[in-house]
Specification:
single chain, about 190 residues, alpha/beta, five-stranded mixed sheet, 8 helices, elongated
């Protein structure tokens, strides 16, 4: 969130100070040193004002689709995890909010949090990709569909997951709309 906010803080002067402390000569003139310190002080003051003015910026900023889809699924899975008295293993293509709110083991099908999935997907080694997912023995699989009543894959590798785990033979436990473009299908796979 606020990707560029982290760059507004004036760290340059502290880098210069560190190098000077390590006996690396950066500037030889007192005017340049003084200017850097003054600019850094002004930058710190401006950053403080920015943070102070935006301290409530992120409160209640979830869109209706985010609340209805990922946030709802995450809290739902957290409750299921508590009811089943175990940390659930979930395969999912949308790791962010679902992973955060569920507090479960979440395996992102894109490979963003797993090097094996990333490498097998990158190499299009679908046999190894599916074998890895099968070895996880997931409790739940969440897939993204173009349609609300029947699963129509939005992503090619989700179609492979759908077919391998024979999800056509199962009814989704939940279907949640994110927006008009896609829906989340939650399938219970293993007890």
């Amino acid at each position: 969130m606020n990707f560029f906010g982290r760059y507004q803080y004036p760290l340059f002067i502290y880098f210069v100070y560190f190098l000077q402390d390590e006996k690396v000569k950066i500037t030889a003139h007192k005017i340049t040193d003084s200017t850097l310190y003054i600019l850094s002080s002004i930058g710190i003051y401006q950053y403080y004002n920015f943070i102070n003015n935006h301290k409530n910026f992120y409160e209640n900023t979830y869109s209706a689709g985010l609340k209805n889809g990922p946030v709802y699924l995450g809290t739902y899975l957290k409750q299921r995890s508590i009811q089943e008295n175990q940390k659930l293993k979930i395969i999912n293509s949308d790791a962010g909010a679902i992973a955060y709110f569920s507090e479960c083991y979440l395996y992102d099908t894109w490979g963003l949090n797993n090097a094996t999935l990333l490498q097998t997907k990158k190499n299009r080694n679908w046999t190894a990709y599916i074998a890895y997912l099968k070895n996880i023995s997931p409790h739940y699989i969440i897939l993204i569909s173009k349609e609300s009543h029947t699963f129509v894959p939005k992503l090619d590798f989700e179609d492979k997951i759908y077919k391998h785990f024979k999800l056509k033979d199962k009814s989704p436990e939940l279907i949640r709309k994110f927006d008009n473009n896609y829906y989340y299908f939650l399938y219970k796979v293993y007890d």
